[in-house]
Design a protein that fits this description.
The protein is mostly helical. 43% of the residues lie in helices and 7% in strands. The chain has seven helices and three strands, in the order H-E-H-E-H-E-H-H-H-H. The protein has a three-stranded parallel beta sheet with strand order 1-2-3, with helices on both faces. Helix 2 links the parallel strand 1 and strand 2. The protein is elongated.
């Protein structure tokens, strides 16, 4: 449904399942959100994003060029006039679809206790960011620790 007084192409939607949401986001000219996860998805898809928050816990979305912090409706409307269509972006180095391989590398190269510690920090030995932390849930960590 359109939003009265704003624009007939702006719509409020009921919650969507993940795949439907990704499909919708992939074809969007712009996304307005307060969700950090949605901010990250817009990087990968190259869709401009306006984040309605005073700050973001995902500053990478700003530095990659897809996201912009806005604070209120007036800022959203002003920014929306400037934005639309694909945007400048850079995919972060370790967002290459190879995280599982890096996890296996850590597990094969280290004892399990050390591997759990690396995964919790999201780092490989030597300090490199393996892109691991966001891929391992708390329950996975618990199961790994239980098996020690």
């Amino acid at each position: 449904m359109g939003l009265p007084g704003l624009h007939p192409r702006l719509r409020l939607l009921n919650p969507l399942d993940y795949l439907s949401f990704l499909a919708l986001m992939s074809t969007a000219r712009m996304v307005v959100t307060d969700s950090g996860g949605v901010q990250e998805e817009t990087i990968y898809r190259g869709v401009p994003c306006l984040t309605i928050r005073p700050n973001t816990e995902r500053p990478l979305t700003i530095t990659c060029g897809t996201d912009r912090i806005v604070h209120n409706t007036a800022e959203v409307l002003a920014a929306a006039r400037e934005v639309g269509g694909p945007c400048r972006r850079s995919i972060p180095e370790l967002w290459d679809g190879q995280t599982a391989g890096r996890i296996v590398q850590v597990l094969a190269a280290a004892d399990l206790e050390q591997a759990v510690n690396y995964c919790q920090k999201g780092q490989l030995p030597g300090g490199g960011d393996a892109g691991l932390k966001s891929d391992l849930s708390a329950s996975t960590m618990y199961e790994m620790r239980r098996s020690l």
